Amino acid sequence: MLVAAGALIGAFLAVLLALAPAADATTSPSPGPSSSQTQFQNSISGFLRNAGQPLQGVKITAEGEGFTGSTTSGASGAWTISVPTQGSYKVTLDESTLPDGIKLAEGQDNPRTVTFNQTSNASTIFAFGAGIQVHQESFFSNLANRLVAGLSFGLLLALSAVGLSLIFGTTGLTNFAHGEMVTLGAVVVFSLSAIGAPFWLAIIAGLAAGVAFGYVQDAWLWKPLRQRGTGLVPMMIVSIGLALAVRYVILFFFGGATQQLPYSQSTDIELGPISVSPNNLWSLLISLVVILLIAFALLRTRLGKATRAVADNPALAAASGIDVDRVIRLVWITGGFLASLGGILWAYYRPGVSFNMGQQILLMIFAGVTLGGLGTVFGALLGSVIVGVFVELTTVFGLTSDLKYVGALVVMILVLLFRPQGILGRRERVG
User: Fold this and answer.
1) What is the pLDDT of residues 187-216, one digit of tens each?
2) Chain centroid offset of residue 332 CA
3) Which of 164, 236, 275, 344 lies 20 to 30 Å (CA to CA) from residue 170?
């Protein structure tokens, strides 16, 4: 087991070592000159544009948490202020430094309060232009926007949850390293984009990295442990150790800062009363299409039927002539692919790529899987959508953004008190 784990970590060390120059020599796609010599891991950033044209040399100041810092916008209109700690900061735009004839849009808050939420980067955008008026969002408009955001979050959560549920259903393993499979896809995409690789190639490489990680895990670690008859609890503990090892290898080479993927900054699209970013809209559509394809494969293809048979009863499936090891291997590959895709979309939703982004979402993935029913793919889908929508709706009814993820866990606990097997789970799966 130790040899297999060491070989696995060595393989990842070699891959990340090859990508290390990208992480070290790369700057965020939205840098701005800073007046301070000190660079902290946390930052506040944004873009200044008027009618599509960048505004250069505009002074921005951030105050809060006992810190004051300022910067000026760069040639692209981007600005960044590094701050020592996460918290709430008052961000002020010095209107006297704006070019002649340029004014903030009517109703625009200046100064405004910016609060960090689950990431080391907080962003804010100032609107400019005559005739542009910023209105306060109505309750129903806010509700519609949060529903769309929740559905987008729930579906990208379902991508990772379905993979985790497939692995649990076929092997019985609760894989705590699944979060690192989520992180890997986004890290590879950022690293390749940072060294100038085409974006489409970086996406393909990120998905391929997830597939390779799933394959290597099963071939080098989990299959040997299964053949030795290792119990599920020791294997779960091994997965925790693997998660920690991979996470901090990524931290060593990637760094602790949050980096932005290409095209992470975009203007919202207005669809009637709903305002949605193109990234969230693409995330929703991609997640929906992929999940429908997975559902079709499970219900209509021979491999999908074999997978469901192995999940129901591995011994009976083997007696029926199904190659159980081959099915499990394909499940791990599929799980790696779905996790890496979910990680890429999660990096746009947060937004940003960090070494522990998979750890941050892992609890939500487990919540979706457990709520829907352990080992049931469609239960994982349903549970994830419920978690995603509930997480976003809680902010509409007054819960702070820092506590919205806690509400989803409370709902999961309440459901399991009355239905321990989950919404679509079967009683025989429990115990």
Assistant:
1) 999 999 989 899 999 999 999 999 999 999
2) 20
3) 344
